[in-house]
Amino acid sequence: MSRVTTPSTAELRTLADLDHAATTRIRPEVREAMAPFLDDRYGNPSGSHRLARDAVRAVDEARERVAAALGCAPGEVVFTSGGTESDNHAISGGMPPRAGVPVCSAVEHHAVLDTVAALDGRVVAVDRSGRVDLSALADALTEIGPHTSVVSVMLANNETGVVQDLDAVAQVVRSHEPEVPRVPLHTDAVQAAAWLDLGTAAAAADLISVSGHKLGGPKGVGVLVVRQHTPIRAMVLGGGQERGRRSGTSNVAGIVGMAAALEATVAGRATTNARVGALRDRLADGLLAAVPGAVECAVDQGDRSGLVPGICHLCIEGVDAETLLFLLESEGVVASAASSCSSGAQQASHVLAAMGVSESLARGSLRLSLGWDSTDADVDTALRAVPAAVRRVREFG
Ligand code: PLP
Fold first, then answer.
1. Is 111 in the pocket of ligand 1 (CB under 6 A)?
2. What is the atom index within ligand 1 of the atom nearest the CA of 220?
């Protein structure tokens, strides 16, 4: 039997949540939009009676709203169970896997990286800022040639917040045609969708992964945008839902919630980005000033314009991140060292290793991530707690 006690809601509410890149609180308008579909409007859209028709209408309408928010056509939206499934589907190309060699950058989320590894694909290096090395990508494409099956480069990194120039990546990929016949370009936009207009930032991609719970929507729902004429088969087979591209009874409430979350995100984006960006800068600047040995590995000369606004990533020399996180939590601050993983255990960051950050510095990696509901008080709490916790780790470590 588990010995872990369940914290009370009141206790949870006191936490300064600086782990929004892991997940976010559901927006009130999303909860409201979902509620009827958890109640009377519980139909299965695969049927033909009135309950089912109601669900069909809800999913169709949500598809149109999602498409408008993502800057694609409704027919290009495939609802999935989340970012991981979207990534797996994009890389494998469905069932059986696409023939050929998938290529991705070295800083991808494991949902991409592990799928590429399972298919004996190729991983391309990044530079010190964490952006894909375009000449290394060009060399890989020249070498693999017509056997290349897909190229995957994430839009925003989940650990550092670094945004990739997808147009430049696409230019390299397309410049290899016709030796590399038109190969699909995939982008994992799971961390980008809250902050960037995908209609422009991901315009060059043929396949785009998005997840609901990173932007104030529910968990367990996502989208794979599949542009017209992109070769891809279904990965989940069965009832032929999503026009045969993803079987399984539609998660109607989740899909409606995803649409509401994306719409709210887009409507508030300019204001939220400015507000959260200012909070992030105050946090990062404050910690750099107060914590000796803290550096922003992904930031060159204080210029954070190449990052999404929600992520403050620091490496702190001579500090073990796990101990630091433990002390921070005891002070009411929840954060993360690198990305979150299922066991909660911290693993060495493959992202920092790929950027050439030394192992000893990477051991002190701290990701403080903000989201749509982050407040000045969260930042104040972190500005008090982090320097004090670092001092304690150094005193007793
Ligand atoms: N890709 C990135 C960049 C992520 O940050 C995450 C989640 O942390 C995922 C994919 C997986 O998304 P999901 O949790 O919806 O499966």
1. yes
2. 15
